[in-house]
Amino acid sequence: MIGTGFMGAAHSQAFRVAPRFFDLPFHPEMTVIVGRDAAKTQAAAEKLGWAEASTDWREVVARDDVDLVDICSPGDSHAEIAIAALQAGKHVLCEKPLANTVEEARAMADAARDAAARGIRSMVGFSYRRVPALTFARELVQAGRIGEVRQARAAYLQDWLVDENGPMTWRLDKKLAGSGSLGDIGAHAVDAVQFITGQSVEQVSGHLRTFVTERPLLASGVGLSGTASDERGTVTVDDAAWFTGQLSGGAVASFEATRYATGRKNGLKIEIFGSRGAIVFDLEKMNELEFYDGADAAGEQGFRRIFVTEPEHPYAAAWWPTGHGLGYEHPFSHQVRDLIFDIAEERAPSPSFDDGLQVQQVLDAVERSSADSARWTTVS
Ligand code: SOE
Known about the structure:
- This protein folds into two domains: 6-127, 3-Layer(aba) Sandwich (Rossmann fold); 130-350 and 359-371, 2-Layer Sandwich (Dihydrodipicolinate Reductase, domain 2).
- The chain has 380 residues and is of the alpha/beta class.
- It is built from ten helices and 16 strands.
- The protein has helices spanning 6-21, 38-48, 57-61, 78-87, 102-116, 132-142, 174-177, 181-197, 330-344, 353-370; strands spanning 32-34, 52-54, 68-71, 91-95, 122-125, 149-157, 201-209, 214-220, 227-234, 240-247, 252-258, 267-274, 277-282, 288-293, 304-307, 377-378.
- The chain is globular and about 65 Å long.
- Residues 7, 127, 184-185, 188 line the site of alpha-L-sorbopyranose.
- Residues 137-279 form the GFO/IDH/MocA-like oxidoreductase domain.
- InterPro entries: Gfo/Idh/MocA-like_OxRdtase_N, Gfo/Idh/MocA_oxidrdct_glycsds, GFO_IDH_MocA-like_dom, NAD(P)-bd_dom_sf.
- One of its GO terms (molecular function) is oxidoreductase activity.
- Residues 1-116 form the Gfo/Idh/MocA-like oxidoreductase N-terminal domain.
């Protein structure tokens, strides 16, 4: 495990828990976690369940007793670590967005394809694909239950940056994070729409905006919960991104991503409208899916709320009795489950690094469009 922060903790939980709920072909052994600070990494190893701690990722990805490397560090380190791990013959799981730039993402996708020829697997961590209600939405749409998809709306809204005196975090530094709301959460919106509809974003018209351009530097602690110093730093990423897109199958889409939507905590709302029905998903109600079936009798039509907690639903049977819902952390376990099966059954995991590259190209097109008065820009 590379990284001891938010995602390092979420992915560690998944490796601890997945084998206890799913019958897996291999049992993951949590060998070593890597961070920059020796004492903090040792504490993280103990807390998160890793046998050892290290501050040297190069030494770790070369170890014979490491088969899988999970990259949860900030985006500026993804490419170097992933490529080294793949070349050392390790399977790789890498957090989204795949990289900070298209060039890095392309190098990673090339390395992943070379490694795949040697039986080495790689996956990018768009975990929300594995929220049961979202996976189920894709099943309905792909089975033609809403007919031909014409319109998609996706808004990923959070509010954790609303306080303009909240201290800087690495997520506000373009060098470390690549972009702001766009890559951190807009990437999820893009991936989810493409995953559900099976159509890819081909053209975009985008706007990016930074509301708070300077913040106090961090004196101690981590991120926004840390304490602010008297010195100030410059925010170099977007605070909000909004864009429209044309999809490969002829549908149109709109996307919003912001960490300034006061009152919205972790709302990823996705609406897909087709010629015969519609679906609505909201991450703040992640065990539910709304489904409008145009095949219902005329006087009985309306959105029905499906509680996606039944054994018939994706992943749900492994967990709790019917009706007992799941939370933010469960999709990470589903990710681990699927990756381990892919490795054991010698299958290409999904989403692949090529999928991660394609999302990166969408993000890049939005940035180019925004810099050019929102001109229609081809994803390339
Ligand atoms: C991870 O999947 C992730 O995108 C984080 O990187 C975001 O910061 C979080 O808000 C949503 O989940």
